[in-house]
Design a protein that fits this description.
globular, six-stranded antiparallel beta sheet, alpha+beta, 260 residues
Length: 260
């Protein structure tokens, strides 16, 4: 599962707030503190289960953290000749090349934070369908992000957003970017947020990759063949190195995945 956490600005109570996320990754924990920032990562090792915990990663004045899995990181290393050996190194090296466009190249489920310690610029990224959560807030004195909203609440308290209650009761969740706290927001799926703490400017962009794609198959037979090929590939890249299993609900989806 893993978790990431970061504070830019005043970081009082940051350590205790970070500890509230410990249940998300009990294999190892690492923090990084500097002038005006605190970052931390709790790790549940999957892809790099037998290697050292290297998050937060600090390189060339940048700090990077991520929660999730990048299924095509080895292909990206080869294709772009990246100076990287694992997922987080691949993310940062790719960011050096592609900046905000990395969403178009990464295949996986992820929540990413990249911080420039020299310019005090922060980038947050969330995967295409929003599998991995990423919450944030800005109080005027600090920018905070976390894998769960409760870590942010630990620092700023809880402020009920009554207008979000009907969403939660109807869907079991709130619709991004809204949360049950009026000052805490969820980063939308398939989007990035840029924040400059130095001049307090921000921008965000959402990519609709699904609507951007052309309709290529208009008959059932050709579509079925391509679907089977893509499904097999999708399952293959998700099989981890650690012991794994399949949860079968009895429906068509889980039965098909188990059979594949």
């Amino acid at each position: 599962m893993c978790s990431i956490f970061g504070v830019i600005g005043k970081s009082a109570n940051a350590k205790s707030a970070f500890k509230t996320l410990a249940h998300r990754g009990q294999d190892s924990t690492k923090t990084l503190e500097g002038s005006g920032y605190f970052f931390g990562s709790h790790r549940l090792a999957i892809e790099s289960y037998n290697s050292l915990h290297n998050q937060p990663l600090e390189k060339n004045g940048f700090i990077a953290l991520f929660n999730g899995e990048i299924y095509n990181y080895k292909e990206l290393i080869t294709k772009y000749n990246l100076d990287a050996n694992d997922e987080i190194e691949t993310i940062l090296e790719l960011f050096f090349l592609k900046k905000e466009q990395i969403l178009s190249y990464l295949r996986g489920m992820y929540a990413i934070a990249i911080y420039n310690t020299n310019t005090k610029e922060l980038w947050l990224f969330r995967d295409i369908v929003g599998k991995k959560p990423l919450y944030f807030t800005y109080t005027g004195e600090q920018f905070i992000f976390a894998s769960e909203a409760k870590a942010i609440c630990h620092m700023i308290g809880f402020h009920l957003e009554k207008r979000a209650i009907h969403q939660f009761l109807g869907y079991g969740a709130t619709i991004s970017p809204q949360t049950l706290d009026k000052y805490i927001f969820k980063l939308k799926p398939s989007s990035y947020l840029y924040f400059n703490f130095q001049n307090q400017t921000n921008k965000s962009k959402e990519f609709d990759f699904f609507l951007m794609q052309k309709i290529l198959y208009k008959d059932l037979e050709s579509a079925s063949k391509v679907y089977e090929k893509e499904l097999k590939q999708a399952i293959a890249i998700r099989i981890p190195k650690v012991p794994w299993g399949v949860l079968v609900s009895g429906g068509l989806d889980s039965s098909l995945l188990a059979a594949m």
